[in-house]
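REQUEST FORM: STRUCTURE PREDICTION
Request ID: SP-0412
Submitted by: Lab K.M.
Chain count: 1
Length (residues): 179
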Amino acid sequence: IDDKKDAAKEQAKIKKALQQKNVDCARVYAENAIRKKNEGLNWLRMASRLDAVSSKVQTAVTMKAVSKNMGQVTKTLDKALKSMDLQKVSAVMDKFESQVQSLDVHTSVMEDSMGSAMTLTTPQAQVDNLIQQIAEESGLEVMDKLSELPAGATSVGAESSQSQDKEDHLSRRLAALRN
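STATUS: Completed
RESULT:
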């Protein structure tokens, strides 16, 4: 919630800077606004990853229980096969299939949770789009000045790049853990 408020404050600063014809400051404020927005998304992403890990642990516990039950079913199936009682064999097979379906459901839930953890990028175009949107809302003309500026030439952009590199590294680690 604070990140949304901070992003809104930065957008107000963008508008003020654009009204003062200071596109350099507007660009910095736009980068700040996008960074604040992405921080909020990163927290949401982290919560999603925690949910995925929790789901994975729960699935492991469930799989352990299902494996134990499958072992018991296998023993029961052996006994039923030895006695050649077709009804017992059929009942044991039904129970086994039910447990396999339960395992499939738990595995599917875990995979869905892990798949929901995703990464986002913040390209320079996003900064330009935010500046353009606020300029249009304010009735200001800035696109000519915006195209003259070097893209991402501020230290804030470099910091954002470092943050993105770290995020990419974490995403690769998460993908490795999934496999």
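NOTES: Residues 2-178 form one domain.
Reviewed by: T.R.
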